[in-house]
Amino acid sequence: MPTDPAPAVPAADVLAELGALRGADAPTRGGRTFAYVYDAGLEGLDELAAAAYSAYASVNGLDPTVFPSVARLENDVVGAAASLLGGSGAQGTFTSGGTESILLAVKTARDHAKAERGVTGPQLVLPSTAHAAFHKAAAYLGLEPVVVPVDRSTYRADATAMAAAITPDTALVVASAPSYAHGVIDPVPEIAAAAAERGVLCHVDACIGGWLLPHLRRVGQEIPPFDLSVPGVTSLSVDLHKYGYADKGASVVLYRDAGLRRHQYFAHAGWPGYPVVNPTVQGTKPAGLLAQAWAVLRYVGEDGYTALAARVAEASGRLLAGLRATAGVRVLGDPSAGLVAFTVVDGPDGEPGLSLLLHLADEMRERGWYLQPQLSFDGLPPNLHLTLTPATVGQVDALLTDLDTALHAARALPPVAVDPALAELAAGLDPSKLGPDEIEAVLAFAGLTGDGGLPARMAPVLILLDALPGPLKERLLAEFVGSVFRI
Ligand SMILES: *Cc1c(COP(=O)(O)O)cnc(C)c1O
């Protein structure tokens, strides 16, 4: 039901309504939600970020000649990123998040390839574990993605295969540090060298790791070279709203120099309004997001980030040891820190058990923990994914205890399986030709009623999704989310 915006509501009531709505959400503090949220567990940080946002809430970041303090804040934040990530001579931009940083890096590479090398049918070479945002960028900006399978045992990009995928039309080669899905660092020096040898740009997606890895190095952890100081790396993205612990809407994209960054900018004087120069996707830009990120960076400080990284490393180490000691659990790859993906094996043949895994996720959710299910892809096993933060440290033992109980409970449940009739029906559907009735029927079969509500247990839905061909899966997901946002 649409709410009627007409009657004026007193401020206290408005805030009470928001508070009540938040009650249905996963908690963002306390260390039990292992995806989407980054909790530094630092006293006073949330209050500072909110106050800094407020101080700049009405300022428009669109025009630094009218609001010069916006340029000062952005230069400080980008400068901090460049000095942390080896960018002597680098220039960059503050953006709304990792996706926007990636969109801009891909646009820059596309326009650079066209201007410098005459490439008109640009390709984007990326490992199969690269973040979906690169596929989004390719779709938005008209590049052809060239996906290269990763090593099946380490989950890291295969540098030789990546090099072999480079053609005269390649605009950009991508490596992750680390990948979101498995938390492992790609062989950046080898990939960047192969790109440089062909005169092609190379982007390092350090969205999640960029603010963590340098600090892990400071506490003595072995971290391979991955940043802008690596020869051949020409751009890098790092999210401040992840391990920078800024509020949502804060990321930086860096380029090796101003000449390359120029291809990111959009300028337009051919209309009767003000002369437009937009460094990013947005026109009017919320300066509050920049101000809160700036404030958080200053408040935590370099030693503060190192101390927080040490806590993440401690949480990761304890969790990994506990997971590896749990019968039937297999950690995927050798995660560098912060992220952990594990699968569960079922039966004597030791195959990853999707039904068991999904039951486990549901059982954990019932016990108040959110672990993120990731489905199988291109021969890589389905798994549960955890993002660790400093607030996790105090929760690891309780998590492992509950995981053990939940795993026993999950094993006792009858396996979920896809109805063979539905699987057959789904396999015969052409996703581009589906009508509303067919969509509704398949969604209903999966337990998704079309009113945007989710069933309490997600295993039956996810097992079906896992079995569907990719394009059909994508179509159904889009329809489902469309049903969530229906007024
Ligand atoms: C989070 C993330 C992104 C996308 O960033 P958003 O801030 O969610 O838009 C891209 N790459 C990696 C590795 C990430 O972890």
Q: What would the keywords be for this entry?
A:
single chain, 487 residues, alpha/beta, Aspartate Aminotransferase, domain 2, 7-stranded mixed sheet, 5-stranded antiparallel sheet, 43% helix, 13% strand
What does this protein structure show overall?
Its cofactor is pyridoxal 5'-phosphate. By secondary structure, this protein is α/β, with parallel strands linked by helices. Among the domains are: 52-297, Type I PLP-dependent aspartate aminotransferase-like (Major domain) (Aspartate Aminotransferase, domain 2, 3-Layer(aba) Sandwich); 420-484, no CATH class. It contains 16 helices and 14 strands. The radius of gyration is 23 Å and the shape is globular. The chain binds pyridoxal-5'-phosphate. Pyridoxal-5'-phosphate binds next to helix 4.
Computed CA radius of gyration, to the nearest angstrom: 23 Å
Bound small molecules, by name, code or SMILES, are:
pyridoxal-5'-phosphate
User: What is the top-level CATH class of the domain at 52-297?
Assistant: Alpha Beta
Number of helical segments? 16
Largest sheet composition: 7 strands, mixed
Q: Shape from CA axes?
A: globular
Strand content: 5-15%
| Element-level helix/strand string | HHHEHEHEHEHEHEEHEEHEEEHEEHHHHH
How would you classify the helix and strand content by structural class?
Answer: alpha/beta
The fold-level CATH name of the domain at 52-297 is: Aspartate Aminotransferase, domain 2
Give the overall average pLDDT. 92
Which spans have pLDDT < 50 for at least 5 consecutive residues?
A: none
Keywords: Aminotransferase, Lyase, Pyridoxal phosphate, Transferase
InterPro entries: GrpII_AminoAcid_Decarb (IPR050477), PyrdxlP-dep_de-COase (IPR002129), PyrdxlP-dep_Trfase (IPR015424), PyrdxlP-dep_Trfase_major (IPR015421), PyrdxlP-dep_Trfase_small (IPR015422)
Cofactor: pyridoxal 5'-phosphate
GO molecular function, one term: transaminase activity
